[in-house]
Amino acid sequence: MAQPSFADLFAAQYQSLVRLAGLLGADDPEDIAQEAFARLHTRRLREDGAALAYLRATVCNLTRNRLRHLRLVRLRRPDPPEPARSSEHAVIVSEEHRELLAAMDRLPRRQREALVLRYWLDLSEREIAEAMGVSPGSVKTHASRALAALGKALKEEDA
Amino acid sequence: MNDLEERLRAALDARARTFEAGPHAWTRVMERRPRRSPARWLLAALPAALVAAFVPVLLNGGLGRNTATDPTGIYQQLMKERTPLGKEVTVDNPSEGKPLRIWFAKAKPGYPEVCYAVDRAAAEPFGACVNAVGWQGADAWFVGSTLKDGAATAMDWGLARQDVGTVTGVTKDGQEFPGTVRSLDGAPYRLWTVSYPSQEPMSRIRIADVKGKNLGWWSRDAMAPPAGQPMSAPMELPLGVSVRPYRSKEGPELIWSRHGAQLGSHVLTAASPVVSTTVQDGLIRGSARKDVVRIEISFDGGSTASIETRPDPWNLGVTLFAVEDPSGDPAEGYRTVAYDASGKEVWRHDEPAKRSLDETDQAVGEVMTLPGTEGSGRPMRVWFREMPGGANGFCYSGGVDSWAASGCFVNGPDDSHPFQRTTTYLPDPGADIYFGPAGEDWESVDAVLFDGRRVRASFLRGTGTPHPVWHVSVPLGTQVGGFVVKAKGQPDRQLPEYDKSCGRQAARSETAPTTLPAGVTALVQPGCAAFWESGEMVPALPGFVPGGKLSGLIDAERPVRWAHGDKAWYGYALAGTAKVEIRMKGGVTGTAEAAPDPWGQGVALFAAAVPKGSDFGTSALTGYDAGGKELWRYDPTTPRVTATTTPAPRS
User: Which element (helix H / strand E) includes B13?
Assistant: First the structure.
């Protein structure tokens, strides 16, 4: 099986990884995607085809760490500026999706990751598990709980 | 798919379209590589050893009276397609009271591996071979451990570079246990062992050279990342695989390991599939529902595995398994069929092959074989292609040192001179081959060795390629300080050889480092400007090529080279700079005083404490002279005419 070159991966996946970081809630998705590629460039991956999985997992990890960092910063500083992306989304994303996306943003991080990886990237359970660093069984759990929570949230808001 | 799922998909698609990639992303990725924080640095140094495939022992291999269930049989099985490299050593394994055999071998493509055979008091012996190509940036590192419950004493062991004299085990609370460092005749690395009480597990090793000079430390976490609270004793599976449950928020987490080195983890939940399988490290391992007694796996390539599961001893309601992966390709797709005790099929699942991309379909001109790599077992191929944004890219793929030997870099801008290195082990004694795209007006490229000697590069031109390619071969392990490029009518240009071994070289220097503010010290060497923060090494910067100066690495276009650690930011800038200001993405600013370097390198050195609230994601720097006049600005977010001049990374 052919091994992807760094440029192939960059050309094919950079935009997608920026969007993945954005969907996971990163305040600077480009920064996350660039960091993932920079790390990949210096890393040795013996297994063919592992690079894309590594990139996805790195984006998930970096975004998770970044959100954790931002939460700590916000706890220390009472009046933080909102991430610039938030207001932008409110305008760009149409009204029909806003309610659902707002509910998704309130999900626990792992559940949100499982939904994005499954419904936006269309990954298999094995690939999602690799990206999240959990077992395939956990993926099912996170995704089903997330869907249940979303359904409940939407019903409550409709009520 | 139900309505909610459809809505979710549409909403995610809509939101995703609001995140656009910037036009300078490629350059930003190239630029940010050298500026790694210590954590990133450590990650980047993750070696082949960590991801190397364990070579499982084949049982009952028909080798006369020796079988793979005795250490001699294990040795013979492991060495079937390997050649010994140096002498074998037998060390006392305090956990088993039986000998542990360790030896080096040459894998089929010629790279070194370290192999071991563990004889056990109450279980079958096992063995494995692990890639022994050194961790970049490490002087010594962990390979295995005999640590197990019930044994009073444990022993960790690993490899060290030839000039390492002592290795000391350090526990979390700072207790130290002296180690033993052995040389094995003809082996590429030294072998270290540290014995310690099992109740006081080691957290890292402290490393010194043969003269006692401190070379730094290496964490045990790289071999066995920290886990949570164990729920019970580990369970032994075939092939030396051990699995142990730990508490986690999501449910019991099974951590899989072999000879102390973690292979992976796996969380059990109510929604776990009937069979959870991982194909990795030459093993098929995983868990299954408790009624599953047999699993048949058939790979797309035709190989099959028949697995008898074992019930877990912890009453978690699962069965567990570990067998050899017969496919040899972890990306291959496979079908899993599970059977209960009556032989009835209870589950089946098709796992698709992992996707990959073609490499050379967009090549511009001929795809060439790099001279000197033809007999290496996996020749290095080089070609040009169009990169995102329309620039020319120079691509390479091959070599025996895995993923890092595949990549592309931009070849468009005139002052961008990226290059790469590949190592060949065959034919003996091996070589380091440096190569990169050349300009049409280049007259020569010289590799400059640490001792000042020069080796002239050759040029290669493929049919229809937009540029020539330069390449130069030096004997394996030769220290190259950089390259000098001579182009028609232009001054010589220095390209430092700046790799992750920079810090290792600097740590061995007899020269005292220069003290800068904020607890930073600095030392310049050929190819490497090393920095320490309170004595701990932090990311280094490019150093001069032997015969050149640091001032040759900066100019009006690139007036500063800088990096940061946990506590300080530091670097060097154009001569005459007296103050450097940094402005970060979130508006945080900082100032560093700069002073002429004491080495006669024609630059100004600076360092300052990291300002509070720093986020170094993208930072702009401004330099001022002693009178407060602005001398230069460097803003990586502003598109420049040229791409980075930083050389490509080393594998």
Answer: helix B3-16
